[in-house]
């Protein structure tokens, strides 16, 4: 019930050099669980923003009244990676040695925000739900930790996909929960939900 909502939410997005650098934003109105209405969209060209500073942007909504006020900071990506199983970062003895030194007791107060990191190997899924008329699915896997999100590639026409990817996340809150969700890619339509598991970091 507000024409001037304040969300005050912060999100971290990781984009790599081979990805498009346009941030797409949509504003929706929700009457009830079933009815939603698009109130406007806008785009931000990330490559045009100055780096290593917080940019205050007032973005008019395209073809609709109203605007969005946002703070966007572009900074080098640290502590986040996607790699193949054969080049797993923790498999390198030198890397393990550096990590042991970084998190040893005598260095534990050098950076209070550096709690640690989580490395997840996404190997495969088995016996997934068939989402297509062909009796198959086009599954991909999304990993979310706090407001960090990374995803695998899509394996087409397969109910037992193998991804064999290694994901590394910085940990910002030891009470966070790792959420692993499998979706079926459906062309231009929103992906279909195939299943989910939640793993509290404190249980690892």
Gist of the model:
By secondary structure, the protein is mostly beta strands. The protein contains one helix and eleven strands. It folds into two domains: 22-74, no CATH class; 81-203, Immunoglobulin-like (Sandwich), CATH 2.60.40.150.
The helix count comes to 1
> Biggest sheet, in brief?
4 strands, antiparallel
Estimate nothing, just give the exact number of structural domains.
Answer: 2
CATH architecture of the largest domain: Sandwich
Going by CATH, the homologous superfamily of the largest domain would be: C2 domain
- Main-sheet strand order equals 8-7-10-11
Q: How much is the average pLDDT? A: 86
Q: How many distinct beta strands?
A: 11
Query: What portion of residues is helical?
Result: under 10%
Distance between the termini: 42 Å
CA radius of gyration is: 20 Å
> What is the name of the CATH topology of the largest domain?
Immunoglobulin-like
Query: What is the H/E order?
Result: EEEEEHEEEEEE
* Low-confidence regions: none
Percent strand: 35-45%
Describe this structure as you would to a colleague.
With 204 residues, the chain is mainly β. It has two domains: 22-74, no CATH class; 81-203, Immunoglobulin-like (Sandwich). It is built from one helix and eleven strands; from the N terminus they run βββββαββββββ. The strands form four sheets. The protein has a four-stranded antiparallel β-sheet with strand order 8-7-10-11, with no helix packed on it. A three-stranded antiparallel β-sheet has the order 5-9-6, with no helix packed on it. A two-stranded antiparallel ribbon has the order 1-2. It is globular, with a radius of gyration of 20 Å. Keywords: Calcium, Membrane, Metal-binding, Repeat, Transmembrane, Transmembrane helix. This is MCTP2 protein. Belongs to the MCTP family. It is a multi-pass membrane protein. It is found in: Membrane.
């Amino acid at each position: 019930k507000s024409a001037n909502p304040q969300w005050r939410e912060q999100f971290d997005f990781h984009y790599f050099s081979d990805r498009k650098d346009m941030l797409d934003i949509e504003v929706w109105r929700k009457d009830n669980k079933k009815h939603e209405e698009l109130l406007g969209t806008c785009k931000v060209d990330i490559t045009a923003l100055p780096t290593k500073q917080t940019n205050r942007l007032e973005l008019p909504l395209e073809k609709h009244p109203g605007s969005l006020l946002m703070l966007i900071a572009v900074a080098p990506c640290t502590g986040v990676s996607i790699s193949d199983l054969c080049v797993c970062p923790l498999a390198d003895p030198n890397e393990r040695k550096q990590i042991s030194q970084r998190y040893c007791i005598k260095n534990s107060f050098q950076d209070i925000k550096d709690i640690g990191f989580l490395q997840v190997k996404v190997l495969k899924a088995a016996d997934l739900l068939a989402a297509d008329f062909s009796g198959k699915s086009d599954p991909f896997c999304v990993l979310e930790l706090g407001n960090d999100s990374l995803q695998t590639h899509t394996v087409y026409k397969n109910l037992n996909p193998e991804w064999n990817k290694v994901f590394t996340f910085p940990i910002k809150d030891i009470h966070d929960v790792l959420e692993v969700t499998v979706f079926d890619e459906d062309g231009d339509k929103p992906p279909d939900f195939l299943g989910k598991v939640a793993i509290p970091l404190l249980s690892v």
